Description:
With 167 residues, the chain is mainly α. The protein has 2 domains: 1-110, Up-down Bundle (Four Helix Bundle (Hemerythrin (Met), subunit A)), CATH 1.20.120.1200; 122-167. The chain has helices spanning 2-22, 26-46, 50-75, 87-110, 125-133, 141-163. Helix 1 runs antiparallel to helix 2 and helix 2 packs antiparallel against helix 3. The N and C termini lie far apart (60 Å).
Amino acid sequence: MEVVLFYIMAGLILVFSVLTVTSRRILRAAVYLLFVLIAAAGLFFIQQFAFLAAVQLTLYAGGIIVLIIFSVMLTSHVSEKLDAVSFKKASFALVACIAGAVVCISTILSYPFPKPTNGEVDASMKAIGTSLLGYKENGFALPFEVISILLLAAMLGAIIIAKRTEK
Length: 167
C-alpha cells in the first residue's frame, strides 16, 4: 500500500508541478504550488517523518503560499492572463531543463555516497527541539532568522517594483 501511495503522491507532484509552471493565470499557479507542497508533505507522512510533514504543511503550504497569494492579490489583477510563451523561449527552456537534469543525474550517479561511520543519532523530540532552537554549533535559529529577513526583504522589493507607476 505504501508503494501505491508513493506513486500517487509522486504523480500528483509531477502533474501539479507542470501545471504550476505552465499556467497563464498567476493565482492558479499559486494554488497548483499549494497542491505540490501538500503532496510533498504526503510523501513525508508515508516515510513516517511526521515532524517534517508538519513543518511542510504549516510553514510552506500554510505560510509561504498565503504570503504568495497575498502578494499576488496586492500587486496584480487576478483575472489577468499572462502572455503566451513563444516557441523560441519554450524550446530554450526545454534545452535548459534537459541540461540541468543531465548535470543533476550525472552528479548523483558519480558521487560515492560513503556509509556513515558514527553510531546512532539521538532523534528524540528534546534533541530535535534543542537543535532547532540553538544558535551555536548545529543550531538552526540564526539561519532561520536570516532567511526570514531575506524573504521579507524580497517580498517588499517585489511589491514595490510591481506597484511602481510608469511616468
